[in-house]
Amino acid sequence: MSTPLLSVRDLHVEIDTSRGLLKAIRGVSLDINAGDSLGIVGESGSGKSITLKAILGLLPKNARVTSGEIHVDGVDLATLSEKARRALLSEKIGIVFQDAIAALNPVMRIGVQIAEVPHRRLGWSKEKSHARAIELMELVGIPEAEKRFSLYPHQLSGGLRQRVAIAIALSGNPQLIFCDEPTTALDVTIQAQVLRLLMELRVKERTGLVFVTHDLAVVNEICDEINVMYAGRFVESGSVANTFQRPSHPYTYSLLKSAPDVDHQSERLFSISGETADLTKPVTGCPFAPRCFAATQLCSESEPALLAQASSFSACHHASNFTEKIPTDHFSLGTQGKAHS
Ligand SMILES: Nc1ncnc2c1ncn2[C@@H]1O[C@H](COP(=O)(O)OP(=O)(O)OP(=O)(O)O)[C@@H](O)[C@H]1O
Ligand code: SF4
Ligand SMILES: [Mg+2]
Fold this sequence. Notes:
alpha/beta, Rossmann fold, eight-stranded mixed sheet, four-stranded antiparallel sheet, 11 helices, binds adenosine-5'-triphosphate, binds iron/sulfur cluster, binds magnesium ion
């Protein structure tokens, strides 16, 4: 088997907060290979962004990785100096974050921002880097690239600025792209174009994709694999097709129920009531138990491990039989999630 582009094992992250020490990430593992497309979904605060930031070494000052291993292209990041680690990460991984538009330099021409990486990091000549920037602007669908090269970010629409951010992420020819809600600020037409672009890159360049989103319809469209995150852990991992058709965790089931019907045939939405777990307090049982329709005594006594089930991995004591406990007023699963056939 080939070496994964990225391999993460049992990652733990703690954050100092005003409420105490927050165990934000509690044992995340994942592998991604060339051309893979992996979605990470979960409610706000579940740990999606902190997971990506921990891998990239971009955690806020009050946060730290307390244990776990991260290998990039087979290299253990812990064995590298800070400088070598940064160089490897920026060579292999392009990033499009939630606030990508804000991350653009307002006083630098957009073309120069795109050309900077090949010029400074890859050591390309100014002319070659300029040509590469034009090529990337065309690739991400910025019309009249040559003319727009000299514009400043504020002279572009939000959709075009997001494309510039993606062009910058691609400018070092990364093998893997991390996208953290890259399309939430965009209108639906631009969002569809950006998603199409990412899918094309995957096919043409075999670029791996890790895509964080709240939107299950987007995961359904562009990802093959899904990790459902709750309280700092993956609670279900598997193929999108299997997971959407036969979820093996009550939280995944509830998320699918609470998502708008992908065909917009139903106006009624199920909402997951109750608060998410407070990770400044010790976790004694399943963190989802207070909100779970299938919880039993066992669930409040021990936290389930992520184990193989018929069609995915699930961290639920009742993964194989929770559907028997679905309240009768829940909708039938058949209308949710377009399964990949
Ligand atoms: N700088 C910080 N200081 C204190 N706590 C933080 C900080 N950044 C994140 N957290 C906490 O860490 C946990 C995980 O946050 P994270 O940003 O990863 O959530 P998320 O899943 O990305 O949510 P969202 O969908 O809203 O982006 C949350 O409880 C959050 O409040
Ligand atoms: S372990 Fe229990 S509480 Fe947790 S998701 Fe499964 S059934 Fe619900
Ligand atoms: Mg986030």
